[in-house]
# Entry
Amino acid sequence: MTKLSAECLSGLDDSIIRPVYDRKAIRQGIVHIGVGGFHRAHQAIYTEQLLNRGKSLEWGICGVGLRPEDQGMRDALAAQDYLYTLYELGDGDDTQTQVVGAIGDFILAQDNPQKLIEKLSSPETRIVSLTITEGGYCTDDSTGEFNAHLPQIQHDLQHPESPKTVFGYLSAALKLRRDRGVTPFTVMSCDNLPHNGEVARKALLTFTGLQDQELARWIDENVSFPNAMVDRITPMTSDEHREQLRAATGIEDRWPVVAEPFIQWVLEDRFCNGRPEWEEVGVQFTDDVTPYEDMKIRLLNGSHLAMTYLGFLLGYRFAHETMEDETLRRYVRSYMDLDVTSTLSPVPGIDLEEYKNTLIERFSNREICDQLSRICSDGSSKFPKFVLPTLLDMMAQGKPLARVALIIAAWAHYLRGVDEKGERYSIPDPRAGWLQEAIAETSNVVESFLGLEDVFGKTIPNSAEFVSAFQLQLERLQKFGVKATLEMTLGD
Ligand code: CS2
# Structure
């Protein structure tokens, strides 16, 4: 067994890809906030590929954790010279192991907020990228407005020298850059939100404007916020994954990342302070990412929600199990074909039929063991981005709503916290209490649940057609269970 470290690299098996560049010579042009599995399987890999070609040597990555929980990742990476293993698992013979060196350092904000502000202000830092989850942008889904009243935002407005949120840090660093005459960095969101760059921009400008209007104006004029579509299915790393990696390769890695072979990134080319030559390693640059992000978020992330709550209620715990269930698989495919597709504009260079076939194959990947609990998490933030835009378009088109209503009814049913096998589970959502209170209103659950305005907005609960479709599906689930409801829905 080999504990992963810089020293052990040369002794690894020849089949394992590893950094072939001098890590000490790399400068850190990118600071990435939110180093989870996804960043390490996606942006860091594109960047690593460039470094391995001897290119973009000024674009190494410094990881940042803003939350106390990020200490685990920092400690794991620090103990192994910030190296980690990407364990790529496909259903065929496309397994690949790669030790990645692109992340060269990691700052845990709570250790020293000032150090982080200085790092972000350094002229060497030219891109600040983010994976802070869909909910991390503190934006009200029903209005699109920044939620300035949140306690952590209020804290940052009152204590600009020791912030807690991403907006406090970005704002403090950009102020220093402006005052010192340093070119600002690009803010690059890599989260699954429609117009993620635009959302990041609006949040940062609103936050900053509450402190310093002139700084907000300067940011507006000088900082760029490219929109991006990002894609790679990345399960949570489990102990089984760690063990599997160890058994197959001899590498003992405290926190490897497992991912499918598929990877995609479509990115707007708007960088105010330069960027790596990512186009050389497969990133597609475009002027307008909208058709790509609509396609990806509505078809992939939306279908994930379509399969996950129903699958979990049936007692499945992994994505591939839901695809092995004929009825569920047919339901997911018909949601894609009959509901989502008509809401999409043509996507340059992409054949949607083929795209959807590939999605079903990707969801069926048995090797990565993608957890439904991961996909079920944070429903209150995911629905407004992944499913409700499709529903609103379908309502406007006068389409039948039974299939899409079932996704939402399944979520409501799942929130009771017990599956059809009688197994109890907790709800992985920061707003779990609030959601569960709404579905506990047994006298009028439809009204109380769809009345959650932060999630559903105003138009959806006011549609008599949708409300009755939702009510019917919820009643079916309660009376007849998931299987029969699916059969009835497919026959509707
Ligand atoms: C998933 C995504 O969290 C979710 O609900 O749909 O994490 C998904 O796996 C990625 O967006 C794939 O790119």
